[in-house]
Amino acid sequence: MTATTVGPHFGLVHEVTTTLLAAPDRELPVFERVDLGDRGAAVLQLRRAATEIRRRAIQTVGAAGAGHIGGEFSIIDALATLYLAVLNTSPAQAEAGDPERDRLVLSKGHAANALYTTLAAAGFISPEALRTFLQPESMLNGHPARNKIHAVEANTGPLGHGLPIAVGMAVAAELDGSERRTFVLLGDGELQEGSNWEALMTGGHRKLRNLVALVDRNRLQQGAKVAETNDLEPLADKVRAFGWEVVEIDGNDIGQLLDAFTGAPAASGKPTFIIAHTDKGFPVSYMRDNVAWHHKVPSTEQVAQALTELDEILASIEAEEEK
Ligand SMILES: Cc1ncc(C[n+]2csc(CCOP(=O)(O)OP(=O)(O)O)c2C)c(N)n1
Predict the structure, then answer these.
(1) Centroid of chain to Cα 130
(2) Which residues contact 206 (CB under 8 A, 6 or more apart)?
(3) How many angstroms separate the alpha carbon of residue 187 from the centre of ligand 1?
(4) Is the CB of 220 under 6 A from ligand 1?
(5) Nearest Cα to 135, choosing from 296, 28, 1, 297?
(6) Whose C-alpha in 234, 259, 300, 301 is 20 to 30 A from the C-alpha of 57?
(7) Where are the extended beta strands (E) located within 20-119?
(8) 209 in helix, strand or coil?
(9) Which top-rank group of organisms is this from (predicted)?
C-alpha cells in the first residue's frame, strides 16, 4: 500500500493524504448520462453500468477487508438508474450546491461502497478515489458523510434516519415552490425502526408528491430474515393506509425501475413508495439470497468467481447490443 493525496478535484470536499488499496483489475468506466429516447438501448446501457459498478464494488470490499456487499448488490440497479438516467443533478450542480438539484438520500448507509462506486461511474467522484475506501483519513467512510463528498446529501448509517430527513427535504422544496424531487433508498429490515412510520405519516398527511421512497425488499437483514425478526407484512397495505401511492416491482430489473421512477409523481398527488423486490447479493450465485453475505468479506477466489459471472453478463449485454 502506498500513501497518496486525494482532494477536491476528486469530487471530495478537501485534500487528505491516505493509503491506497490495491488497484482493480481494470479501471471503472465513467458513463455519460443515459438518453431515455431509445428505451431499449437505455436499459442495456444501464445494465452494463450496473454490472461494471458491481465488478468494481466487490473488488473494493475484497481489498479493504470490510463492507456490506450483499445489500450493496441488491440496490446497485436502482442507484445506477437514478444517477445515470433519472436524477436532475450533475457533478457541477452537486459541487456548487445548486438548490434546484434533485436529492438522493441513501438511508441504508451501510451500503456506502455501492453509493461511492455509482458516484464514480457517474462522474461525481474520481474512480481512483475508490482506492481509499475505509483507509485512515479517507473521506470514503463506511457510512456516507455529506461534509466530505459534495454529492452526498445526508449523513446516514444509523438506520431509520434517511426517510425523516427526506421528508424534511421534500417539505423544504414545497416551501420553496420548487418541483425538485427527493428520493430515498431504505432497507426492509430498516423499516422496523419506528421513526420511519412517523415520517410515512407526515409524508402522506402533507401529500409530498415529489417524494419517492424505495425499499430494498431483499427479505434479509443482519443475520436473519426480516419476516422472522419483526415481520413487515402486509407492507403495501400499511403504507397505502398512511396515504402513499404504492408500486411493487422487481428491483433488479432496470426497465421496471425506470417505469417506477418516471411514473412519479403520481396523479393522485400522494408521495410514491416503491417496494423493490430484490435479492441480497444479486446476481452472484454464491451470494444471492444468502444472509451470510450481509457483511461477509469475499476471499480472493470468491472475488474472481464473481468477476467471471459478471463478465458473462457483460458479454450477454454486448451480444444483445449487437442485435
Ligand atoms: C439504528 C441501527 N441499529 C443497528 C444498525 C446495525 N445494522 C447495520 S445494517 C443492519 C441490517 C439492516 O437490514 P436491512 O435494512 O434489511 O438492510 P440490507 O439487508 O438491505 O442491507 C443493521 C442491524 C444500524 N446501522 N443502525
Answers:
(1) 16
(2) 167, 171, 174
(3) 7
(4) yes
(5) 1
(6) 259
(7) 103-106
(8) coil
(9) Bacteria
Q: Can you read off the three cell numbers belonging to residue 42?
A: 437505455
Give the C-alpha separation, 263 to 267, whole Å: 9
* Ligand 1 in reach of 138 Cβ (< 6 A): no
Maximum C-alpha span of the chain:
55
DSSP codes of every residue in 231-288: ---SHHHHHHHTT-EEEEEETT-HHHHHHHHHTPSPTT---EEEEEE--TTTT-TTTT
Find the 98 Cα to ligand 1 centroid distance in Å: 31
Global pTM reads: 0.98
User: Domain boundaries in the chain?
Assistant: 39-322
35 CA to centre of ligand 1 in angstroms: 35
Of the pLDDT bands very low, low, confident and very high (cuts 50, 70, 90), residue 317 is: very high
Ligand 1 pocket mutation pick from 159, 226, 280 by most atoms within 8 angstroms of CB: 159
Reported as a pLDDT band with limits 50, 70 and 90, residue 1 is: low
Please count the helices (runs of H) and the strands (runs of E) in the chain.
Answer: 11, 7
Cell numbers placing 308: 467471471
173-209 tens-digit pLDDT = 999 999 999 999 999 999 999 999 999 999 999 999 9
CATH top-level class of 39-322: alpha beta
Q: Which of 76, 107, 108 to mutate to test the pocket of ligand 1 (most atoms within 8 A of CB)?
A: 108
* Digit-coded pLDDT (tens) for 115-149: 999 999 999 999 999 999 999 999 999 999 999 99
